[in-house]
Amino acid sequence: MAELALTQLHPSLDDPVLLSMNLLNDIASDHPRAVSFAAGRPYENFFRVEQLHDYLGTFVAHLTDVVGLTDEQARRTVFQYGRTKGIIHDLVARYLEIDEGIAVDPDAIVVTVGSQEAVFLTLRSLRASPQDVVLAVAPTYFGLTGAARLLDMPVLDVGDAEGGLDLGDLERRVTAARAQGRRPRALYLVPDFSNPTGVSLDLATRIALLDLAAYLDLLIIEDNPYGVFQADPGTRPPNLKALDTRHQVVHVGSFAKTGLPGARVGFVVADQPVVRGGRPAGTLADRLSLIKSNVTLNTSPVAQAVIGGKLLRHGCSMIAANKREIEVYRANLRRMLAGLTARFGDSGPVTWNTPSGGFFVVLTVPFTVDDDALRRSAREHGVLWTPMHHFHHGMTSSHQIRLSFSLLDDASVDEGLDRLAAFVTAESRAAGSAA
Amino acid sequence: MAELALTQLHPSLDDPVLLSMNLLNDIASDHPRAVSFAAGRPYENFFRVEQLHDYLGTFVAHLTDVVGLTDEQARRTVFQYGRTKGIIHDLVARYLEIDEGIAVDPDAIVVTVGSQEAVFLTLRSLRASPQDVVLAVAPTYFGLTGAARLLDMPVLDVGDAEGGLDLGDLERRVTAARAQGRRPRALYLVPDFSNPTGVSLDLATRIALLDLAAYLDLLIIEDNPYGVFQADPGTRPPNLKALDTRHQVVHVGSFAKTGLPGARVGFVVADQPVVRGGRPAGTLADRLSLIKSNVTLNTSPVAQAVIGGKLLRHGCSMIAANKREIEVYRANLRRMLAGLTARFGDSGPVTWNTPSGGFFVVLTVPFTVDDDALRRSAREHGVLWTPMHHFHHGMTSSHQIRLSFSLLDDASVDEGLDRLAAFVTAESRAAGSAA
């Protein structure tokens, strides 16, 4: 009987980074009645099946009435194999202009199976030899680390400091890597309401980062799943791609949070010029499209049509499309922050950060947080969250917890925080008596 | 300005294999009025937008009425992030039993973004070190070769002989590769109505292949996009997975041809046991799921719902769902074979094979066929087809042409063959006068 030893499969397949998500999902599914601060899913109470029909119909009508296709051509666009770079690239470009202030040629966009594929394609293009490495602001979303593992591409940590990025550390890491014969290709980060920290870079840091990256000859992979979810409208600085005058930024976006996760539609803007023997050879987007041809071929045109229809229904603004959700996230964030103060005070050993939007808050506690602590929390206190060490590869514990609040209603926030407080009290007491 | 030299990107991105599809698409789009024997797309005249609504509605009703989910749970299943291995695995398992005679635990199935992702995930799992190679029956579908290139995994050709596979050659290639320190991991092939040749393996060859692969300790990757499209019902031998008693076969399937291409839904059956330190550690499907988490995360649940609904509408039989299409393909195949005889006779220098189903016929001509010949055919004769050398990596010409007939009606078949005959006559004359 054919039996496969793990030692004969790709090393990533027994790597803690790839196993993280499974382990967390297993703990969650063992405790279905727990209140969950774990899942980074968008609010779902406004979902209706009829929306799918409406969005599909809207997109097909757009193809015939606005684009001018015949019924047969419109059907073919949605049903058949299609353009590798996608069929809603023009709508994505309008969305980027309206919501994100990014002006880009639609042909420099590749529509992908979520932002995960966008990151995977980008790393594949840049990982040309074993010397190539990617840098990432730590703590790092494990989708980046996992994709890099699959491609045998080391990830070098860069410190996040107070403001979300330690520029001095970035320069030191790049210089040290080069001195070791490594080739740093890009810095990955989530500059707006980061996963896992919820922190955003201020404008001065963004501008300084672009200048430093130019000086260091380093691309920036800007992952932007949460940008439109700002709690205080008008306070968000432009994203890196909007400030990019030198084609330094590969911008990765997602409609999983703003559209619907079940469509699995994301995209990458990659307008970097590529040269062959000094002569123009298209853009990086053209090359990512070649890779995509051999990974997933197309992003489902049906799924793209659903997202296209949602964009069209709201003038290509996902801020407009998510008016109600943005209000929920804003209210939940405020309730979380007020609820934490009410339960832990503002001078105690338990502290937390105060993001200005997004889905996440980070709690720092005076005891060690590992996966067993999460299991105790789920079993004894009925509350789930994400241990921060999963976002630091190589670590198995820390003193931090990621709290996600995107999926909850008022009562769940309150109940969840009560349970969390009971867990923190119990663990602090146990840590105190052990000390 | 950031500018990327191709020499600093992954080598596959300047590889003829990856550029093949682009080149062929470019020639096709330069000649929109040509009759096309090139596109391997399913027949599209039965597509209706209403079907999407019907399929989605059918699947959601199944979740509530049969599976017993609440409306809220059903919505969540289709709208939210979901199970990495997919949400229609049980329906896929029923389809495999009904149409393919394969009995498999639904948990050993991973639903993928088309069969391309299934092949990519499988190769990623098996390519553990630079010694690992995959074998493929030549000529080979370029999706396999392209995926292997992205993973720096060499592809070793195996001869196809008369019956579709030269078993002696397979054994010699594996032995020679091992003698060179290489580690052959699997043989990739399309045993039913192969792309590009249209040829099928007979039952004796299938059984002998399974025995030889067991002897050689080699997995088999069976890619089966066309199996249900047999022209003569009841004559198709069981596929390799249906004959597999030793977990030797990784079976890759696709709903692109039977469902709809625009859903981009395929799957892989990988029931191989995996061991860690001699102890059970799940199946290969579990490991492919880990890879998928970091490549595309999920296959769009919306797209899966469309395919799930189509399966449910037809008792989980894609043969039943494609009754009309199968009739079209059968009629087109007969019209192609009769039309070739009418135009080229049965004793001339032009020959072709006679597949018993699928989408393709292969023509052998007495002159050299390269990409320039295709350009002349398109420009001067208004007919497109696929030069066979694109399925032989490293070759730039051959004497063969792949003719696809799946997308055509009677008039197009006749007109296309007339144009093809004119092209063949002109090229034969030019070759004769040059000789």
Automatic annotation (TrEMBL), chains A, B:
Residues 72-420 form the Aminotransferase class I/classII large domain. GO terms for molecular function: pyridoxal phosphate binding; transaminase activity. Keywords: Aminotransferase, Pyridoxal phosphate, Transferase. Signal peptide: none annotated. One of its GO terms (biological process) is alpha-amino acid metabolic process. Its cofactor is pyridoxal 5'-phosphate. This is GntR family transcriptional regulator. It comes from Streptomyces xiamenensis.
